[in-house]
Amino acid sequence: MIIQEEIEELVRLKGATLFHREGQELEFKEQFNLAALADYFRDFAAFSNNRGGFLVHGVKDSPRTLTGMSEKSVDQFEKLDPEKVTGYLLEIFSAEIRWEAALVEVGGVNLGVFRIYESAAKPVIAKKDEGKDQSIKNGEIYYRYGGRTQKIQSAELENIINKRIEQNNQQWLDLMSKIGQAGPQNAAILDTERALIEKGDSRVLVLDEVLASKLKFVKEGQFVEKGGAATLKLVGDVVPIDRVEVVRRVKENLTKLYPLSAMELIPEVQKMYPPAKQSDVWKVIAETDLKNNADYSAYNFRSKKQEDTFNETGVLPKAMPSIYNDKAVSFIAKVIRDGGI
Q1: CATH top class, domain 4-152
Q2: Nearest CA to 155 among 273, 257, 278?
Q3: Residue 259, preceding bond cis, omega within 30 degrees?
Q4: Is 96:118 a contact under the CB 8 Å cutoff?
Q5: What percent of the residues of the chain are helix, what percent strand, and what percent coil, each to the nearest 5?
Q6: What DSSP string describes 232-291?
């Protein structure tokens, strides 16, 4: 959902210019043009491969001022057909890109806003060439770095692949854990494509007792219609259950997961890549917004009150330090070595 107050914050003024700069989750454009859709789609994919973000039309560059879109741009923006755009994106990219658009009025001017969500199936890969100058090329993966969109570098791609492997492994572990809790003799497989729950050669339907009490079960071949009656066609056995086992993960101590302070990062990075300088490490952290990326870092709250306030308001206390994990060391060393920053 695109929220008015959120957009107003993104284009908040400090004097005559905008307070916020372009970053990993924010891109400004002066006008909207249907002929430039391929360029926008490139940004869509980049945001989707990172943490999502906003593409806001109606902001002039150098200096960043709030000018709003012209009548022509507004007219073209309103002609966007969401169904067609989604179809184009599916043709161009390997995975679904979730997005939405809205015309938002701020300070008496119209802004064309796209919100792009983080993909659940990274990496999103281009499947074909697109655009006048082939701004999108077959086989390329786009990623959001600081305030720019570019081809993904090895460190970020490796992180995406590793995270996908970890998610897959965790799903298997969760499944095996639940089978172990229930006992193999009580376990069944839910086939979502065929809409069946199977155990060996049998087909079994498992229902909660509350739901089961509200349904009328009719054996196959014995159906008699009664107006308004809730019914299920029974083609197998019905087994009621009285409880669902909930698996809870206990959050580990942050210092075990993220053992390094910002200063301790430097010698660790230099062990992996000796030419690295302190300024290089700071630059990578700033340009990639690493301190706000849970894959590599966590906020080191000084008290529970600080953490509770952040969870309620979403506003970090000033000068909040972050702590980092070993993945951050490898990531920073690779970026510096590859000359990506």
Answers
A1: alpha beta
A2: 273
A3: no
A4: no
A5: 40, 25, 40
A6: EEESSEEEEES------PPPPPHHHHS-B-HHHHHHHHHHH-TT--HHHHHHHHHHTTGG
List the chain pLDDT tens, one digit each, 341 residues.
Answer: 899 999 999 999 999 999 999 999 999 999 999 999 999 999 999 999 999 999 999 999 889 999 999 999 999 999 999 999 999 999 999 999 999 999 999 999 999 999 999 999 999 999 999 988 889 999 999 999 988 999 999 999 999 999 999 988 998 888 888 878 877 777 777 665 565 667 766 655 555 555 555 555 554 445 455 555 555 455 555 544 443 333 333 334 677 888 998 889 999 999 999 999 999 999 999 888 888 888 899 888 877 788 888 888 878 887 788 899 999 999 999 889 887 66
Please tell me whether residue 306 adopts helix, strand or coil conformation: helix
pTM of the model: 0.65
Length of the chain, in residues: 341
Burial 213-231 (b: 16+ CB within 10 A, else e): eeeeebeeeeeeeeeeeee
Q: What are the boundaries of each domain within the chain?
A: 4-152, 188-241, 252-338
b (16+ CB within 10 A) / e for 246-259: eeeeeeeeeeeebe
d(CA 324, CA 300): 10
Q: Which amino acid is at 221?
A: G
* 306 CB neighbour count, 10 Å cutoff: 15
The answer to whether 332 and 264 are in contact (CB under 8 A) is no
The two structure tokens encoding residue 11: 């284009």
The rounded distance, in Å, linking the Cα atoms of 91 and 72 is 28
